[in-house]
């Protein structure tokens, strides 16, 4: 059982306040959707939640079974997909997989990897360097790398950008699967995706 | 978890291996650093001609070449991550210290490989005779560790700034000065055939400075890495 | 304390006496002549350049620990004053060197050290100007300040060993006995104290000014923000 709590998050950029007083609490089996126009700070908030940025004020705390999890223990349990998060384009999908699996402490399981690639519609492209992928394929590859370690906390920033209809359907399945018994956070502008969030935080001022 | 300490080191090796793999594919930093060194060396040798230089000119020349070659190639390891937007990906998979040590190893290997190639060429082109070769090697070893440590730390800083190229040398130079001064001084002594005991003070400085820089880097890197 | 007006007048009076003393009271040093009077400006300037660097580094450490903007303001303001005094020290030192050693620059230990300090200051400001985001700028600058500060003990060790010193140590030895003539010593110490107080006064002014500037920038951007929505 995991829990994420945010208390009074405030952040400023170049001395301009982007948002303040953001608070929420999420348990396993719940999901959160962040909405707001471009530039409203959705991405910044996502990055604060992932501990990529330290907020000006406030805390984000992760709990596993009531005990606080520090950042160093968090890595195997978190997965992020976003337009500003790229994979290693000069390496092949397989090499990327090996890197991410090893560094997260997983055993290399080629069958699992192949099945993930197939599920995301990338079967047969395992040995191609990622810079040969189209943007849609790259987005699908990002999902492979973000899900390979079955993270309990999945955070998606603009989940369906660059994806065609089949890709979008795949992602919706992933989101549904995740919010069943794990934690899902998504940031989006697409109204059809709002329903994936049990809770909603709107960042428009 | 007793495995946490080994995990730290293991992840550093994994980051290192990944960076080596990437470098083999693109050969960006290797090319930059080697071409720079060869060009500089050629320019110097060509301009000076057949004149045999004294050790108090050769020693500084060697370290100037090494320093500026380092400046042309050792920032790539961090700058590339930011420019290709893989830095945040890396931030989410492992701790800052693993990342720093992994990249420090990469820069150390890069600089060492350069020296293995360039120094024989330097010695041939400039007709260098080193009387005390063993001391010379130890100076190079310690100096390389020191120089790559400084370069890695500063590279982490400038990766998040603009105007990265010029800024890298400007920021690194004052910090690298203790290495350069001691390295040049001891190299001259080694070329002149001085014994180990005479070079010991310089070697001690090179060693202690490297230790201080690496320790400081491990303390400060987290502040640099986490935005 | 420094806000009190009487401090300003006291300091002004003190410095007036110091300057009078430099030119009228202190005797010319043996063998060095009238030009030695530059020492009363040169040494305090070098001292303040170093002190400012120290304060900047300490403020930087505090900034990394607390993330409070006022520490960055201290670090930055101290560095600004420090670089000015470092330039003054380098130039006065060079002028004096030309006068008594017939050469503007020799890379002797003291000259080398003040030059390195100047380089570090220049690098610090180059870094600050290369980072756009205010919070990042402060953090990276603080880290660099600390790194640069750590190298200082090493410089103290290595620089004197390399070159023969041209500095007239027998006359002015900050560690051991000070072989200055009594009157010279009085003027020298008064100058040192006076300049140090001047530095702290300038620092306070600068910090207060920046704080006000900072608050007004914040206010104007909040008003801009409110106006938008």
How many distinct domains of chain A?
1
**Shape estimate of chain A:** globular
Portion of residues in beta strands of chain C equals under 5%
CATH uppermost class of chain A: Alpha Beta
The percent range for helix content of chain A is: 25-40%
The assigned structural class of chain A equals: alpha/beta
Largest sheet of chain A: 5 strands, parallel
| Arithmetic mean pLDDT of chain A | 90
Give the helix/strand class of chain C. Answer: mainly alpha
Query: Which fold name corresponds to the CATH topology of chain A?
Result: Rossmann fold
Low-confidence stretches of chain C: 168-178
How would you spell out the order of helices and strands of chain C? HHHHHH
Task: Tally the structural domains of chain C.
Answer: 1
The secondary-structure element order of chain A is EEEHEEHEHHHEHEE
Shape of chain C: globular
Question: Could you explain how this protein is built, in words?
Answer:
- The complex is a heterotrimer of chains A (205), B (227) and C (229).
- With 205 residues, chain A is of the alpha/beta class.
- Helices cover 31% and strands 28% of the residues of chain A.
- Chain A has one domain: Rossmann fold (3-Layer(aba) Sandwich).
- Chain A is globular.
- The two termini of chain A are 33 Å apart.
- By secondary structure, chain B is an all-alpha fold.
- Chain C is built from six helices and no strands.
- Helices cover 78% and strands 0% of the residues of chain C.
- Chain C has helices spanning 5-25, 39-66, 69-101, 109-129, 134-162, 182-228.
- Chain C is mainly α.
- Chain C has one domain (37-172, 179-220).
- Mean pLDDT of chain C is 81; it is low at 168-178.
- Chains B and C meet through helix 7, helix 8 and helix 9 of B and helix 4 and helix 5 of C.
């Amino acid at each position: 059982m995991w829990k994420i709590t945010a208390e009074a998050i405030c952040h400023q950029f170049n001395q301009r306040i982007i948002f303040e007083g953001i608070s929420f609490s999420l348990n396993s089996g719940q999901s959160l959707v962040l909405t707001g126009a471009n530039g409203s700070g959705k991405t910044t908030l996502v990055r604060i939640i992932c501990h990529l940025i330290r907020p000006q004020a406030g805390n984000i705390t992760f709990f596993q079974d009531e005990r606080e999890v520090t950042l160093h223990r968090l890595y195997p349990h978190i997965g992020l997909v976003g337009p500003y998060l790229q994979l290693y384009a000069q390496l092949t999908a397989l090499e990327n997989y090996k890197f991410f699996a090893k560094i997260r402490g997983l055993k290399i399981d080629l069958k699992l990897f192949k099945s993930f690639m197939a599920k995301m519609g990338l079967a047969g492209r395992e040995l191609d360097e990622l810079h040969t992928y189209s943007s849609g394929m790259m987005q699908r590859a990002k999902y492979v790398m973000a899900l390979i370690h079955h993270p309990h906390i999945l955070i998606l920033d603009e989940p369906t950008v660059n994806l065609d209809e089949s890709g979008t359907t795949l992602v919706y399945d992933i989101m549904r699967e995740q919010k069943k018994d794990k934690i899902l956070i998504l940031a989006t502008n697409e109204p059809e995706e709002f329903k994936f969030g049990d809770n909603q935080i709107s960042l428009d001022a | 978890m007793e495995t946490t300490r080994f995990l730290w080191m293991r992840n550093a090796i994994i980051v290192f291996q990944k960076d080596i793999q990437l470098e083999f594919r693109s050969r960006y930093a290797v090319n930059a650093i080697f071409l720079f060194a060869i060009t500089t060396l050629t320019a110097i040798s060509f301009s000076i001609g057949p004149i045999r230089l004294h050790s108090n000119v050769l020693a500084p020349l060697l370290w100037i070449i090494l320093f500026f070659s380092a400046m042309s190639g050792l920032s790539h390891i961090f700058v590339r991550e930011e420019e290709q937007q893989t830095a945040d990906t890396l931030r989410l998979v492992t701790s800052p210290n693993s990342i720093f040590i992994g990249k420090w190893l990469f820069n150390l290997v890069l600089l060492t490989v350069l020296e293995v190639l360039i120094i024989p060429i330097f010695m041939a082109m400039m007709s260098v005779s080193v009387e005390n070769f063993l001391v010379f090697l130890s100076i190079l070893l310690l100096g390389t560790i020191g120089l790559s440590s400084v370069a890695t730390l500063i590279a982490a800083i400038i990766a998040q700034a603009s105007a990265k190229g010029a800024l890298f040398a400007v920021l690194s130079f004052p910090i690298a000065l203790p290495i350069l001064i001691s390295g040049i001084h001891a190299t001259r002594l080694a070329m002149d055939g001085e014994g180990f005991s005479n070079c010991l003070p310089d070697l001690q400085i090179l060693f202690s400075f490297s230790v201080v820089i690496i320790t400081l880097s491990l303390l400060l890197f987290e502040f640099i890495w986490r935005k | 304390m420094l806000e009190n007006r009487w401090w300003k007048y006291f300091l002004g009076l003190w410095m007036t006496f110091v300057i009078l003393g430099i030119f009228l009271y202190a005797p010319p040093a043996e063998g060095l002549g009238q030009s030695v009077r530059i020492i009363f400006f040169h040494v305090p300037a070098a001292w303040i350049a170093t002190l400012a660097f120290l304060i900047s580094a300490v403020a930087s450490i505090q900034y990394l620990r607390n993330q409070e903007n006022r520490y960055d303001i201290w670090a930055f303001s101290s560095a600004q004053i420090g670089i000015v005094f470092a330039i003054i020290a380098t130039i006065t030192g060079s002028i004096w060197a030309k006068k008594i050693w017939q050469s503007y620059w020799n890379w002797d230990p003291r000259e080398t050290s003040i030059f390195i300090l100047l380089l570090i200051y220049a690098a610090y400001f180059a870094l600050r100007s290369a980072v756009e985001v205010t919070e990042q700028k402060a953090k990276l600058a603080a880290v660099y300040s600390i790194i640069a500060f750590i190298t200082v003990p090493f410089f103290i060790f290595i620089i004197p060993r390399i070159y023969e010193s041209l500095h007239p140590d027998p006359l002015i030895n900050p560690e051991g006995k000070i072989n200055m003539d009594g009157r010279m010593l009085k003027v020298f110490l008064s100058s040192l104290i006076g300049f140090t107080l001047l530095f702290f006064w300038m620092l306070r002014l600068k910090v207060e000014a920046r704080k006000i500037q900072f608050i007004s920038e914040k206010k104007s951007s909040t008003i801009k923000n409110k106006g938008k929505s």
